[in-house]
Amino acid sequence: MSESSLTLADIPKGGKVEVVGFNDIPLSLRLMEFGCIPGVELKVDLHAPLGCPVCVSLDGDYHISLRRSEAETIEVKLV
């Protein structure tokens, strides 16, 4: 991951991003089973008060809650 790249954990509530890649292969396989694949757009719905969990929606109607450490492994770009 380059210094200028963003992760899902960096995106504030309401932010919309596109998945670019993953830094954790076992976790990425699980996320891809949920439809979180490179190129898909995500919207950050919620950051809990202490930063964990991070709740995101895929396609507006499918929701996933991730630990902050998991969100930090998902590379994204702003949409």
Describe the structure.
With 79 residues, the protein is an alpha+beta fold. It has one domain: Ferrous iron transport protein A (FeoA) (SH3 type barrels). The chain is built from two helices and six strands; from the N terminus they run ββαβββαβ. It has helices at residues 25-33, 68-71, and strands at 6-7, 16-22, 41-47, 54-58, 62-66, 74-78. Strands 1-6-2-3-4-5 form a six-stranded antiparallel sheet. The two termini are 19 Å apart. The mean pLDDT is 90.
Write the layout of secondary structure elements.
Blueprint: E1 6-7, E2 16-22, H1 25-33, E3 41-47, E4 54-58, E5 62-66, H2 68-71, E6 74-78
Antiparallel strand pairs: 1-6, 2-3, 2-6, 3-4, 4-5
Tag the structure with descriptive keywords.
single chain; 79 residues; alpha+beta; SH3 type barrels; six-stranded antiparallel sheet; 6 strands; 16% helix
User: Residue share in helices?
Assistant: 10-25%
| CATH architecture assignment name | Roll
Strand percentage, roughly? 35-45%
Q: Give the helix/strand class.
A: alpha+beta
Subunit arrangement of the protein: single chain
Distance between the termini: 19 Å
**Low-pLDDT residue spans:** none
What is the overall silhouette?
globular
How many H/I helical runs?
Answer: 2
Q: Return the string of H and E elements.
A: EEHEEEHE
Q: Average pLDDT, to the nearest integer?
A: 90
Number of strands: 6
The value of Rg in angstroms is 11 Å
Which homologous superfamily in CATH is the superfamily? Ferrous iron transport protein A (FeoA)
Largest sheet: 6 strands, antiparallel
CATH topology-level name: SH3 type barrels
Number of domains: 1
